[in-house]
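Pipeline run #58 for the internal structure catalog. This entry was flagged by the ingest filter as a single-chain record with no existing model, so it goes straight to prediction. Upstream metadata was stripped on purpose; only the residue string is passed forward. Reviewer on rotation: M.T. Logging verbosity set to normal.
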Amino acid sequence: MVIPQFLTAPAVLTLAAVALVGCAQHDRDDDFLTLSAGEATLSPCATAVPVSVEQLDTTRLPTCDPVGQVLVFPDGEQLQLPEQQGGGGASSSSNSDAWYAWQSVGNWGLVAARSSADCSEVDEWGNPEALRRVHEAFGTDWACR
């Protein structure tokens, strides 16, 4: 029995290595938000104060992380942020078909969004760099997922 040249051990190992490298690569919109250790150093805010999403729309970086606090949208909808730092979340409205989302972006602060049920209308709030990173990681439709 003759074994084809492309099935020899070196060729098979090369194909396996290429397959593993291909699986390990992440492109834009890959659902991973990566921050360096230096980009995730905010301490929790000492005072519990509701956070208006409109306050997130700034180029100034936050001085603390509002963990455990209430995020307030312009239409009055409120989301309770978890006690743990990092991550994100979403919720449907209690009064309409709107969808609300938030994402922590480390030292860049929080981003928040409100979208219509069909995602034809999306309002976003947050530091421009934080929004750029969220769009890069999750896509521009992140608030609709």
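catalog note: Helices lie at 9-24, 128-138.
catalog note: DSSP finds two helices and seven strands in the chain.
status: ready for reviewer M.T.
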